[in-house]
Design brief:
Number of strands: 0
Radius of gyration: 22 Å
Distance between the termini: 39 Å
Number of helices: 15
Order of helices and strands: HHHHHHHHHHHHHHH
Helix content: over 70%
Strand content: under 5%
Oligomer: single chain
Low-confidence stretches: 327-341
């Protein structure tokens, strides 16, 4: 019952944001704008979005590599897209779904996979904070007027996220000491519980050890830059499809700003970021670049729909394929796989 109430609440929040976004818009005007859109750049943006997901998979594989399991790119990509598809229905549920999917496909310990997902999320927040810092250098005044306190949000992210990442790396580097202290504390409560949790913690910390060597850190940074760079290019192409760069003098840095604001909308736990994405996208275009509301609303709808189509198309196909060919069968259980050293 509580889950239903929680889901209904998050869904309701999304619809409230959606209503605030489109409440004053003329459906006829929106349709006329959509008829004037150039669809070729949108198709290119869709293709680039898919490539960005592949780049993200390559980064994830690099993070998983210390677990010393063979990892197929196809299985990693399918798990990632399944996670995205689940997020469209269950906010944050996709992180668990992709871990479960890859565990079933490659029999990799789930606690180790979970550690890599945690590192991924911290890396993404750091990247988002850096991009927010870039936009604040150029759009500080209008951004502060449109979204009061945003500069403080950026500063907090830049301080907290690197500290969290460093803490995880230090804990992983001194894994034996951390595990010993953890075992000693938990064993006072229950020896059996201590044994189980210690195995999970060891595997979790092993999943972070990809950030120990300079070479692996360089690879992770490279694929992070490629992934976010492709996001920026895709966003700019959608702006081009609406002729916004020429009409409202929106540069590549403007595309970064819109990407940052929509990414913040995605972090809000609402199914599929419906409403939160649209609202922050439209507000950033209207309040900072003086784009007409109808045009901004149409842009928000199309850019969100593009992501929705790509994720549902690939993620849905991946889920269907896994079920159709029985690829979930015969996998190790959580406790068995996590006991793997």
């Amino acid at each position: 019952m509580m889950r239903i109430l929680k889901y209904s609440l998050t869904l309701g929040i999304g619809f409230v944001f959606l209503w605030f976004t489109f409440r004053k818009m003329d459906v006829g005007a929106l349709w006329n704008i959509l008829q004037q859109v150039s669809w070729l750049p949108i198709l290119f943006a869709g293709a680039i979005t898919i490539v960005s997901h592949v780049a993200r998979c390559l980064r994830w594989r690099l993070l998983i590599s210390p677990l010393k399991f063979p990892i197929r790119l196809g299985a990693t990509f399918a798990a990632l897209m399944i996670g995205y598809a689940v997020n469209l229905v269950l906010p944050r549920g996709g992180e668990v779904a992709r871990v479960v999917s890859l565990n079933k496909e490659e029999d990799i310990p789930m606690s180790g996979l979970l550690a890599t997902v945690v590192v991924e999320r911290v890396l993404d927040v750091v990247a988002l904070a850096l991009l927010l810092g870039i936009t604040l250098m150029e759009f500080s005044e209008p951004l502060s007027r449109a979204f009061p306190g945003m500069e403080y949000v950026g500063m907090t992210m830049l301080i907290v996220c690197p500290l969290a990442l460093v803490s995880l790396i230090v804990a992983s580097r001194y894994r034996e000491k951390v595990v010993t202290i953890f075992r000693r504390i938990i064993s006072r409560v229950s020896q059996k519980l201590s044994d189980k949790l210690t195995i999970l913690l060891e595997t979790f910390l092993t999943g972070i050890s990809s950030l120990h060597s300079a070479g692996q850190i360089g690879g992770v940074i490279l694929w992070s830059v490629v992934t976010w760079g492709l996001y920026i290019v895709a966003m700019y192409l959608i702006l081009v499809s609406f002729n916004l760069p020429a009409t409202y003098d929106i540069s590549l840095s403007g595309a970064i700003l819109v990407l940052v604001m929509t990414s913040i909308g995605v972090t809000i736990p609402v199914p599929g970021a419906v409403g939160t994405y649209h609202y922050l996208c439209m507000q950033s275009l209207v309040l900072i670049f003086a784009v007409q509301a109808d045009t901004a609303g149409a842009f928000a709808a199309i850019s969100h729909a593009l992501s929705f189509v790509v994720i549902n198309g690939i993620g849905g196909t991946a889920i269907w394929g896994l079920q159709q060919f029985g690829l979930f069968k015969g996998s190790a259980s959580l406790s068995k796989s996590d006991a793997t050293p």
